[in-house]
Amino acid sequence: MTSRASLSMASGSEGQGSPPSTPQRPPNRLGQERSPYLLQHAHNPVDWYPWGQEAFDKARSEDKPIFLSVGYSTCHWCHVMERESFEDEEIGKTLSDNFVCIKVDREERPDVDKVYMTFVQATSGGGGWPMSVWLTPDLRPFIGGTYFPPKDSGRRPGLKTVLTRIMEQVITMSKLYLNSTNTALYKVQMCVYSRETPPPAHDVANRCFVQLAHSYEEEYGGFRDAPKFPSPVNLMFLMSFWSVNRSSTEGSEALQMTLHTLRMMALGGIHDHVAQGFHRYSTDSSWHVPHFEKMLYDQAQLAVAYISAYQVCACVCLCGSHISGGFYSAEDADSLPAAGGSEKREGAFCVWMGSEVRELLPVVVEGATGGATEADIFMHHYGVKEQGNVDMEQDPHGELQGQNVLIVRYSVELTAARFGLSVAKVSELLASARAKMAEVRKSRPAPHLDTKMLASWNGLMLSGFARVGAVLDDKALLERAVQAAGFLKEHLWDAERQIMLRSCYRGDEMEVDVSPIAGFLDDYAYVICGLLDLYEATLQPEWLRWGEELQDRQDLLFWDAEGGGYYCSDPTDPTVLLRLKQDQDGAEPSANSVSALNLLRLSHYTGRKDWSQRSQQLLAAFSDRLTRVPIALPEMVRGLMANHYTLKQIVICGQRDAPDTSSLLATVNSLFLPHKVLMLADGETEGYLYQRLPILSSLTCQGSSATAYVCEDFTCALPVTDPQELRRLLLE
Known about the structure:
four-stranded mixed sheet, disordered N terminus, 25 helices, 10% strand, five-stranded mixed sheet, 732 residues, alpha+beta
């Protein structure tokens, strides 16, 4: 996603729930939809259509251009544009009379979003949401942008002006712009994926490290200046790079960059110190003032990053979940102020005035220097100021004036020394204060919660719970992971048609309403990855079996047999103009990047060499990108490294719940081993794994003790039964 400062035609994008629509106005067609974003526009005075054949037929029969508006339910500037323009009666009439107006939730239809965002970026040099694109009746774009104010503002044209110009010159404009459209789309479509073999892993990994090191910001961690995003794909690459370069200066630097970034994020305002979780990004370089939106995919990936870095994972939480196990998509940035008012403000739910803190924490702390109160200590530690701690440049609209975003300014040890107290006493005091503040926040008007449940993001969260649960040996987290996998299989897997579904929704009575939209590549890739992680955490082969089934379907639906790699969406869909392959790891990793490692892991679990070869073909398809700018694909570089260094097969022979088996598993799970597969040989020779890998029958326990084998291509080192000996073997 782009920040508010970097959009070519907008002062911003991202994150907020919409204000209440006028209740008297009857709903338009969007009132029949399930998407929270589309429902937010159901009472606009605009004759909105959802993306579909009805709208296309109307445009063609009436020979009208299409106005396509794309966003998502927690997008701040989407709702600014709604409030300013789509709720305006005059603009609504102009749009409805002269255009076929289509509204798209980008999280429901990422395929549509990718195609037209590609056009906007190619023709304007920028992009973001809301995205506003005008199309011919045959769905070809001829003008595009992002946020438009209702009236001209400085050098930025207003929506009224744009609409007037298009209506006056629609025939001329569409012909004129279609030439540039065709050129832009042709260039994208003709991206060549031609190499027969992947590039050298060592060279690509080193180049990726150098590029990340060049963009690294030493004081506060992270990459590049503000706005600063968490970028977990970068952190996971750096840890994988360290794992194969432990003794080198570069390896040490990679680990230091990772740990410092994770620590500074945990201390900063991007981390919600009261209710936990991480906000979307920081508006400054010090991780202080965030954009307050929370996204499920951030929480999922940061859980894995923190646990991989052996950090305590209590700072990563959920956006919320359904009683049947699915995870909701996002929490809004904006909400109504606690003091009252009808206009939502960014961060209102999360920020604090100094006077609020003093009123909540008035007790004088016994033994504290100078008769300090709980508020004095809390405000010192978290940088709370009476006049507020947000600089004007981080608050262009004045929404945070006099407010404080909590940020850890001192270590607990320094705070304790400042007030003459023990570290234990200060830790207890701060925890108690945060709990009190959490209770106060519960009484504030809550931000909008997008209760859409996406297969892809739930797959990421499945990985998060499985990985964290395995490392911490936390049975509750593992049970939650199993529940999430069960939810995906029950509600988002159409067993009859053998396809994943994109999304489902929380109904009025907490029932689950399923969308008919078929899943996209990321829905398959992220869920498969989650299932593989869940197998390694629980060693229940049913999850491997389903992962294998899903991979077969992914190959059938999305694989490009000519050029290699996977298309993002169904390449046979006639309503999607471009067959795109995502070649960048951004806020979410590219599904091709994830698939490179999925295929390799599955080949080791199933014995299917064709999947190992397919992983190589996928990497070869992106060879040019990997060679030139590996920093654009750090997750794919991890897959390239895994192919190069060969996955270790760690086979534990024993009964799953036996204490000696658990000790060996705990040893494996305590180590960061990015290039491994873990499996349990429990002696059930009729079971799934034994049928896929007959060689497992030759690996047996030594005497009555659980036994570990560390193998490469099932050429195994001598078996070990002692956890410390296994640890030594794994670290060789």
